[in-house]
Amino acid sequence: MSQEHEHGLPPKSSVSRWFLTTNHKDIGVLYLITALFFLVFGGVLALLFRLELISPGADLLGSMGYNQAVSTHGLLMVFWFISPFAFGFANYLVPLQIGADDLAFPRLNALSYWLYLFSGILMGVSFFQGTTFAGGWTMYAPLNTPAYIPGEGLGATSVVLALIMFTAAVTLGSVNFLTTMYRMRAEGLRMRDIPIFSLSINLTVWMMLFAFAALLAALMILASDHILGTTYFQYSIDGTTMATDADNPGASLLWAHLFWFFGHPEVYIVFFPALGVMAECFQTFTGRRLVGRKWFIISMVLVALQSFVVWMHHMFLTGINLPIKTIFMATTIGISLPFDLMVFSLIYTMAKGRVRFTTPFLFSLGALILFIIGGITGVFLGAIVLDYQFRGTYWVVAHFHYVMVAGATALFGGLYYWYPKITGKMYNETLGKIQFGVYFLGFNLLYFPMFIAWETPRRVFVYPDGLQIWHSMATVGGFILGASFLLMFYNLFVSLWRGEDVGPNPWEYATSAEWAVSSPPSLENFPGVPSYATGKLEFLDDETVAERTERTPGAAAHGHAATDGGTATDGGAVTARTAVTATAMETAHEVGGEDHASHASFWPFLVSLGGFIAFLGLSGVRTGSVFYLSIAAVGSLTMFGSLVGMTREPFHAPEMAIAERWPFSEVEKMKLGMWTFLASDIVLFGAFIGSYAFVRVAYGWTAWHHDLIPAEHVTMPGLINTYLLLTSSFLVVLAMVAAERESKRGTVAALVGTFALGVGFLINKGIEWNHLFHISTETFPNGWNLSTNIASSTFYLTTGLHGAHVIIGLIICAYMTVRAWNGAYQGDDRAIEYFGLYWHFVDIVWLFLFPLFYIL
Amino acid sequence: MDWKGYTVIYVVLFVFATAQAVVEFAGLVDSAYWAAFGLIMVLSVIKAVGVAAYYQHLRWEPRAVTYLVLGGTVAALALTGAAAYSIL
Ligand code: HEM
Ligand SMILES: [Cu+2]
To answer: Any idea which ligand is nearest the CA of A314?
Structure first.
């Protein structure tokens, strides 16, 4: 194929293709392969500590080695393997299933992938910084703050930063998928009609959008305690004693709340895509539509909502009060009900259809069986009194492996199921079935004994002698499970050459749209514009589309091209903020352009590389080492420069001429992307403000002000800053009005005013902070700085995060001012409007920070 | 909306911000803390809704966008409220 046909991309046989690609199918394949790599990484660690557990005692890895292996195994599997693996499928299949030619923002999609890969590399590098993270995948604080980490703890900091980078990737991905699914569905395809896998991804992404924002807040706070020296999770303020005194009584529960508010939705984030795969395979291999499909979907929606109100069942053994425990026991029982419905729906589908026992079906069925066992044992844990016994034991370990690895089981089924689609070759069915047998045997031999040996304390390498036999069985099972993957890798690898060629649809009863096109599909996915207007899938040619759009001008009104790109500043946790800048910068670009521009971009790779180097540097800056400081600087510059490069690179991903867009038909994709991002930002700030409220309630709400805050901390600077921000918001609106009226002078003047007021805000804040740092009073002889007490920590970090948002906004504003000066935006104020959405949001946040941190 | 409408909103926001500070300067925060707390937070909420509805044009967008924003807000409030309640 010529380069032009490939949208400016080199052929797949060339290495550079994989660095430049922004195509969803390429990126899907990259995700799948990378995730499998992390599966092996995490799996080898698991085999190591299973060997350790053959006998009680740490004679193989040593105690610290054991802790590291267990902790990083958990983190790798939960974050770097299972969800990215599912999102490999999602990337590949969602556009195909909904009739789109790619995701809404292809370059952001590439950026997500590279951020993910480099976050994993950072995790890998942490092993070489003395010791890596060793405090359990749940990262409980204060345990995981530097004060309680043996040695320098730089590896642990790197892992926290790696997770921040990972979360940035997830947030970008969530915004991208949601925008895609609400703006790019084929004509006639209602939300409830999209294939069940895509639906499960839709709900997963919704949960991700909000849950990962809470995790991001938790991680930023933890990173700040690591790097900046705030004391959110510190019990004692002088740093010399570990007394659990009254200085910060909320310290230990704060992490638990933030983490589990994310953590419980996360378990469904892990499981939903698997559920989608199971439903697809059950339908295809029983030849039957899912029984009670409507109820299945309603159940999924319910679970997605309910998943946000069960998190305290992970905290039954903490000091939270009994009424709230009881409430959360009830909500936990509540969430298992819709699950029962889904399980029955799958069973009935099987009972009513004619089953074909192919490898993907076997894996799906196996997943269902394992999930039922895991789910039932979870209900035990959800009962407060039983959990008093089970918490912190291998019962929990067995439970969550049964459910989580059941999810993974379904995903391996998905790998077999879509392998012919992705490669155009059929795998070896016999070998596949053998793998399933070995896998299922290994799995149960590994995890079932854990229920029997449940009295083993988790995360510890000693256990009662009488339980040794069960642990030895589990170790053997672990190796059998591991070996089954060798079969899978062999099968899938060899079939690339030896496999039979397949046509579009190797499965008799597969009906979703990906099976209607060649295997693998062409770069643009479909031979025409997909439409379900007549009730079945058709491909419209350009003429029909033109005719149709003429008749309904509204439908085509949004058919212009837009670019996607990004920029960000360095420092702090700004990679995470890439999302906003990216979305906002995109709008800063002129709208319009040709259709067949290049879809190759090297910038996503470079941005992520820069972010990786910057974060590696950040992990060590607290040592003051020149090496770490300099790579932090180099990395930040690389990242910032690449973001600018990405913004300036022409890149066109036009909106579809005709598409189904309920309920966002009037919200064009840039605007929808921005709003979706802002929704996650609301949760981020909400979690920061929530943390502040929580530690303040723990301390005593009214005593806080009197005890911890110096009299020099007055209202006036906050009030002035409120005026400055309000006025700047007003000016952005005026810039919009001026652009609409095609007054270049007015636009430029208003934007310059916005910029000046924002700078004034920062200067005022700088003066204020500098003053507070250097006060010397009776209560605060050494100033009031980040480490002084919990009140100062919350004040500087929360308003600092807000300040970082202002800085990002100013960079975008400066960029737009220059463009306006050169004549942009006249008669088309959309770019300014989208920037305004962000800027007004920053304003709104301040409207709450001002009273909370300055008056009350 | 034209610039006059936007200006009216701006003036209201400005006045409300001043009112919040006046509540403090008048000593209400010291004498009747929770009344002052309620008053000040209500003013903040009104301001935020004003900015969102008019400057961010939520009033004129499809309701779904408002629900999206409310979804994030409710999630954050649920976290804050339930967490704070759990230690009361
Ligand atoms: C059927 C509904 C379920 C119920 C009622 C349930 C209940 C629970 C409870 C109460 C705990 C806390 C146990 C403790 O630490 O003492 C727990 C732990 C856990 N569950 Fe579930 N669960 C269910 C389904 C799932 C699913 C579907 C997944 C994932 C796919 C999952 C993954 C986990 C994980 C990872 C943990 C352990 C967290 C840790 O490291 O402490 N659960 N479950
Ligand atoms: Cu849970």
So the answer is: 1
Question: Which pLDDT value is given to residue A551?
Answer: 66
Phi (first) and psi of residue A824, to 5 degrees = -75, 165
Q: What are phi and psi of A347, to 5 degrees?
A: -65, -45
Right CATH number for A25-501 from 1.10.3720.10, 3.20.20.70, 2.120.10.10, 1.20.210.10? 1.20.210.10
CATH 1.20.120.80 is the classification of domain A701-856: yes
- Burial class of residue A194 (count of CB atoms within 10 Å of its CB; 0-12, 13-18, 19+): buried
- Taking alpha carbons only, the member of A295, A339, A329, A289 closest to residue A309 is A329
Residue A510: closest CA among A407, A363, A356: A356
**Mean per-residue pLDDT of chain A:** 92
**Residue B24: closest C-alpha in chain A:** A855
Domain ranges of chain B: 1-56, 62-88
DSSP string over A550-581: HH-HHHHTT------------STTGGGGHHHH
Interchain pair A261, B79: CB under 8 A: yes
The pLDDT value recorded for residue A5 is 58
Contact A321 B86 (CB under 8 A): yes
Segment A368-417, tens digit of pLDDT: 999 999 999 999 999 999 999 999 999 999 999 999 999 999 999 999 99
Whose atoms come closest to the Cα of A399: which ligand?
1
* pLDDT-based confidence at residue A749 (cuts at 50, 70, 90): very high
| For ligand 1, atom 23: residue with the closest CA | A378
pTM of the model: 0.94
Q: Any idea where the domains of chain A sit in the sequence?
A: 25-501, 513-596, 701-856
ipTM (interface predicted TM): 0.98
Contact B64 A737 (CB under 8 A): no
Look at B87 and A697 and tell me if their CB atoms are within 8 Å. Answer: yes
Ligand 1 pocket residues where CB is under 6 Å: A 138, 267, 270-271, 313-314, 332, 336, 339, 375, 378-379, 381-382, 387, 390-391, 396, 399-400, 403-404, 407
